[in-house]
Amino acid sequence: MPRRRTSAAPRRGARHGRHGRLGRSEVVRPPLPPLDGRIDRFDATIGSAVEFLRSTWPELQEVRFEIGGLPATPDEEGIPRWRIDRDQRRIVLFRIPIERLLPPGHDDGVHRRIAIESAVFRAAAEYVGRDPWEFGPGQG
């Protein structure tokens, strides 16, 4: 024999959950996971290298580091990985040549990160007129 409902509680609309609360809007849902694409990793690697360099070398405090896709023209050495503009106090790092022109067999995540950090250090060293190996604690 089926049970009969003895309570005369009103039925709630479809917007109410089992606890009588309104459904939650999209604003209060959990945030989406952070993006973790190649460009995001590139930006994060550049940012951490620049942060380290600025904390090590005061000459770089006011230098703007920017990210570009491709250089407009090749230079005498081929496709540049960065461009320096001392008048504007700016270093532009070119993402595509840095990431894509790696030696065969060295295009995994670890080697890509090393290439990115190396480009940042070499560009900053060229900007200040020093050797990239001088960037480090106790150097200079």
UniProtKB/TrEMBL annotation:
Biased composition (Basic residues): 1-22
Chain spans, region Disordered: 1-31
Protein name as it appears in the record: Zinicin-like metallopeptidase
Annotated source species: Microbacterium ginsengiterrae
